[in-house]
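To fix ideas, we reproduce below one chain and its tokenised fold.
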Amino acid sequence: MKRLALLAAATIALGAGLAPAGESPVGKWKTVDEKTGKTRSEVEVFEQGGRIFGRITSIPEPLDKDGKPKICGKCAGADKDKPIIGLVIIKDLRLDGERYKGGTITDPEDGKVYKAEVWVEDGTLKVRGYVAFFYRTQTWPKAN
């Protein structure tokens, strides 16, 4: 009985010191134009090998003026000239406390790659991109 009480007390003491893990960002999210409020794309966030990634699954106008799929012409490396739909823009984020960090996010409009951090807050996905000490945070609502 005494051992059981000690075990219970130790479990409670250890549990009190642990912060609960944040909500998983896995799911479908909408990127929204901050000026117009219109949906710019839908991104599916998925887990692979303990890391978080996000791929564009739809955009309002998927074809260019010639009727071909829009591509990431300004992207570099392996993403250069890849179709926007299917492009993995969030790469290699891993859980660090309450947030997923340590990876990157690509802006397919200009091809720039930023350090990234994401977390779920009030049912929305917060997506933060960094350049040195400067950052910008976007709020992505859940997609249907």
